[in-house]
Write a structure and sequence with these properties.
Elements: E1 6-10, H1 15-26, E2 30-35, E3 50-54, H2 60-73, E4 79-82, H3 97-122, E5 127-132, H4 140-143, H5 147-165, H6 167-170, E6 172-179, H7 185-190, H8 202-213, E7 224-227
Parallel strand pairs: 1-2, 1-4, 2-3, 4-5, 5-6, 6-7
Helix pairs in contact: 1-8, 2-3, 3-5
The structure holds NADP nicotinamide-adenine-dinucleotide phosphate (NAP).
Length: about 230
């Protein structure tokens, strides 16, 4: 078993996921990074402390297999950044059942299934789980234009509270980071007139997540961090 701390990063081929995995590798973690598409290329693929695991994280039995694999090969997960998620626009009038179910599955179920298995495993010796919320989930006026996205992300804040309610007994902490707009190529393409300097970069968010992964974050409880930049 590895003596290094183990981090699980879901969505490690995404814009935020790549930065977070890279940063945690730099901090000395062994990182198991999930990807959905087997042929996604990752800059840190050859890093000796990185292992790619191809999985659909909305599939419960696949998550069970992943957790069994990690415990057999590495031991317990110390830190998890659950970054899988996605976005769709739509007002109340425009949002269909299909949209709701899609966003629920992508933003909530993917995190819930990982949390459930991590919680059981971490309850032996503690651990820290980080979820990614979204600003409109905390701001109804912004949510009005992206209803299914905001509703699905808002459940993560409740999940965080449920996990934290027992954290003095279980040693399992949960934090939520809330970026405004990430400075990514798709966002630049869809909002070409925005001031990109107002946004937060994936690297800035990764730096915050690496702080949460560090022993310096030990006193933090029920943490919701808003990384809004100037947006
Ligand atoms: N971008 C923003 O402005 C922004 C703002 C606030 C919050 N966030 C949140 O931050 C997180 C990361 O955002 P991002 O912009 O980095 O997103 P991204 O680039 O689209 O990355 C999402 C990753 O999740 C993976 N994924 C999606 N569904 C999956 C599934 N069922 N099983 C396994 N992997 C799956 C994707 O893999 P594939 O590429 O193979 O589909 C991709 O690697 C998300 O939770 C997002 O909601 C983003």
């Amino acid at each position: 078993m590895s003596q290094k701390k183990i981090a699980l990063v879901t969505g490690s081929s995404g814009f935020l996921g790549k930065s977070v995995a890279n940063r945690l590798l730099g901090e000395g973690f062994t990182v198991v990074g999930t990807v959905r598409t087997p042929n996604d290329t990752l800059d840190f693929e050859g890093h000796p402390s990185f292992e790619r695991y191809t999985i659909d994280v909305s599939n419960e039995s696949e998550i069970s297999r992943l957790m069994d694999y990690i415990s057999q090969n590495y031991g317990q997960v110390d830190f998890a950044a659950l970054l899988v998620g996605g976005f769709v626009m739509g007002t109340l009038a425009e949002t269909s059942q299909k949209d709701l179910e899609k966003m629920y599955r992508l933003n909530f179920l993917t995190a819930y299934l990982c949390c459930q298995k991590l919680y059981a495993q971490m309850s032996d010796q503690g651990g820290h789980i980080v979820l990614v919320g979204a600003r409109p989930a905390l701001d109804p006026s912004a949510a009005a234009a992206m209803v299914s996205y905001s509703l699905s992300k808002s459940l993560l804040f409740q999940l965080e509270e449920i996990i934290n309610a027992k954290s003095t007994e279980t040693g399992v902490r949960c934090s939520v980071i809330v970026p405004s707009v990430l400075d990514t190529p798709p966002n630049r393409e869809s909002m070409p007139d925005a001031n990109f300097n107002d946004w937060v970069t994936p690297e800035q968010v990764a730096e915050t997540i690496s702080f949460l992964a560090s022993t310096d974050s030990a006193p933090l409880r029920q943490t919701v961090l808003k990384l809004y930049g100037n947006a």
